[in-house]
Amino acid sequence: MKRVLVTGGAGFLGSHLCNRLIDQGEDVICLDNLFTGRKDNIRHLLGHPNFEFIRHDITEPIYIEVDQIYNMACPASPVHYQYNPIKTAKTSVIGVLNMLGLAKRVKATILQASTSEVYGDPEVHPQPENYRGCVNPIGIRSCYDEGKRMAETLCFDYFRQHDVNIKVVRIFNTYGPNMCVNDGRVVSNFIVQALKGEDITLYGNGLQTRSFCYVDDLIDGLIRMMNSRREFIGPCNIGNPQEYTMLQLANKTIELTKSRSRIIHMPLPQDDPMQRRPVIEMAKDELKWIPKIQLEEGLIKTINYFKTYISM
């Protein structure tokens, strides 16, 4: 049994990770300040003998003994990370420094949840890990984009200077149960609007593309990365390389929900990427990982979750 810390453990991805680790028999400490995380996501685990919840903000140090750290803490949707951009940047810089310091002190392996947003609005498509990105450092998304880029820098500096055992994963668009109704991400937006019979909001002409990975596949990739050989530190893309336009996603959501929602178009937000698709050869080779759940199957699971949530 390993003692595992999951920061942001009450959030969308963090709660799924806590579930999987508990199922595998690990001793899990879930740390979350509940800014975007929700206790409802982990309520069923609160009485489990191998699970502990601590309400804490990683921008403040914490002193505990652990074997592994999954640093998942940071608002990840534009609505949430732009709500308090300075706090977002602090989480990705001061918070990551605190977690790296903890990993150094207790000799833990630390996995940093980075993001495809480090590629910005890419000029290379699809995006391999050696692409350095095209990011606006002063735009409204930069608190997150540049914050995550700085977090990667800190991880590699701690690796080079202090031999901290790091693992860096760049997560592409992920969806599934436990997403917030109001988190502003495209899958949850479309599903909630369709279930309520509201207009589905497409930004721009709807031809911008994304690649959508179902959460179960993503969690499998994270755990494989954490337990990979020490020499493999990344960064490693984890995402589904199948690419869809926003218009395709909107129409598929309407079809699966049997909604009468109309599609309307709104102006494209500043610095919104036009294309996003991962190259996952590194994950295939090093982790023996490929996503298994196709978009329609994952959307049906996610729609069923939101049906229950919205009706409550």
Give the key terms.
312 residues, alpha/beta, seven-stranded parallel β-sheet, 17% strand, globular
Kindly summarize this structure in a few lines:
The chain has nine helices and 13 strands. With 312 residues, the chain is an alpha/beta fold.
- End-to-end C-alpha gap: 37 Å
> Tell me about the biggest sheet?
7 strands, parallel
Shape, principal axes of CA atoms: globular
Structural class based on helices, strands and sheet pairing: alpha/beta
Q: Order of strands across the biggest sheet?
A: 3-2-1-4-5-6-11
Uncertain segments are none
- Residues in β-strands, percent: 15-25%
Query: How would you state the average pLDDT, rounded?
Result: 95
Radius of gyration (Å): 19 Å
Order of helices and strands: EHEEEHHEHEEHEEEHEEHEHH
Q: Could you tell me the number of beta strands?
A: 13
